[in-house]
Amino acid sequence: MSDEQPDAFQPDNLSEQERVRREKLERLRAEGVDPYPVGFPRTTTLGELRAKHPDLPPDAHTGERVGVAGRVIFFRNTGKLCFATLRDGTDDLQVMLSLDSVGPERLEAWKSDVDLGDHIGVEGEVITSRRGELSVLADSWAMTAKALRPLPDKHKGLTDPEARVRQRYVDLIVNPDARRMLRVRSDAVRSLRETLTKTGFTEVETPMLQVVHGGANARPFVTHINAYDLDLFLRIAPELYLKRLVVGGVEKVFEINRNFRNEGADSTHNPEFTMLEAYEAYGDYDTMLRLTRELVVNAARDALGGTVVTHTAPDGTVSEHDIGGEWRVTTVNEAISAALGEEVTNDTTQEQLRALADKAGVPHAPEWGRGQVVLELYERLVEEHTVLPTFYKDFPTDVSPLTRAHREDPRVAERWDLVAFGAELGTAYSELVDPVEQRRRLTAQSLLAAGGDAEAMALDEDFLRALEYGMPPSGGMGMGVDRLLMMLTGKGIRETVLFPLVRPE
């Protein structure tokens, strides 16, 4: 190799297995074999083949000739007969290569050329072994992609959590749970779309690059467009664009979208995440409550085959919970009261709330208003300790800047949060559609932003102009898709997201 190549590609920096594999690669090329051909005449997947022949007796010959391909995840070479297990995207299947079927030259090439992890194509007859294992008896085979790195130990697998995240491709190769998570996520997202489409919602796409960030209290990522010499923000929420569509007459609208928030990363937060947001004209937060429960239960049935979910507590205790029944609905005040053992109402003063917080050991800052103290009590004493899915409703208005005031008591907002297993899954509002009141609230938010609050919303004049054309009474909801998967599978966000953001190695 050239002296100009990086050290990482020098032979001295390779493991023994990697050196052997590269030597095989060069030998194959020298022999005129393309180790990375353009394709292979595959006639069926391994899963289709298994489904077609579920009950063949031992030592059966079907006479059916197929072409199959997959990654070698196991092999055993024993003289005149070699066995291998191939894995494709659908299943695993055994292939057999005998001296009689492929000839001495190709059998010897198999033994000398093939390593665990290589992609192989096999053509031959569908049979069963003497033990009844469905197999393909090869009469020809070909290398379809030579693996230059060895797979993890077959018994230990890829056990390092950091390596599983950084090398998700290896995790998917060797870890059945990783492949299952991918399928569960796909089935759950498809279920969300199908439920909303069947109930008359229209799916749309809204901008990820925005001139004004809004729709949530969050610190945005900032970027720059050279063509316009303009700073832009990566979307923190699609809310204000979806509401523009409701103004435009799209009365039931949703988006499954990627959002970006420049905040902390932990077991429940990733800077880039997937959200579902939906809005319905002439709905309210109760309408959204019923819709959200239907979405979650349908996703569980479609992704898991039922409504029982399994969770592991921090102490290692494993428990099962059926989320298919009715879900608890209670107010924030009622939940805080139950946690404190003392009644909290909308008449409880800020000074009384601070005293209750001190007594319960809940921290609070001097500059906080009454609503922020209530919110901190709720998050510390209620949200973290909630197990089964629960709707907590009627939050203080001053911590709900985009939400309509409650129709009976304007001190609280028509908003709920859905919480399960200690984490918030989603939130919903009876939307604030009064353009004058919305301007007042966004102006207050912009003043907070000017004062240094990095999470406060900016004043979006185009959104306010849209509201001035008239937005009908509406309900809106947002639910974290990653959080939904966490609830369904009992896993952390780094497992439910295929490629979570991690620090460079």
From TrEMBL:
Catalytic activity: tRNA(Lys) + L-lysine + ATP = L-lysyl-tRNA(Lys) + AMP + diphosphate
Residue ranges of every copy of the Aminoacyl-transfer RNA synthetases class-II family profile domain listed in the record: 182-504
EC number of the protein: 6.1.1.6
Keyword Transferase among UniProt keywords: yes
Sorted UniProt keywords: Acyltransferase, Aminoacyl-tRNA synthetase, ATP-binding, Cytoplasm, Ligase, Magnesium, Metal-binding, Nucleotide-binding, Protein biosynthesis, Transferase
Binding-site residues for Mg(2+) 1, renumbered to this chain: 417, 424
Entry's cofactor comment: Binds 3 Mg(2+) ions per subunit.
Binding residue positions for Mg(2+) 2: 424
Obligatory cofactor(s): Mg(2+)
PANTHER family registered for this protein in UniProt: LYSINE--TRNA LIGASE, CHLOROPLASTIC_MITOCHONDRIAL, LYSYL-TRNA SYNTHETASE
Description of how the protein assembles with itself and partners: Homodimer.
Protein name: Lysine--tRNA ligase
Organism: Motilibacter deserti
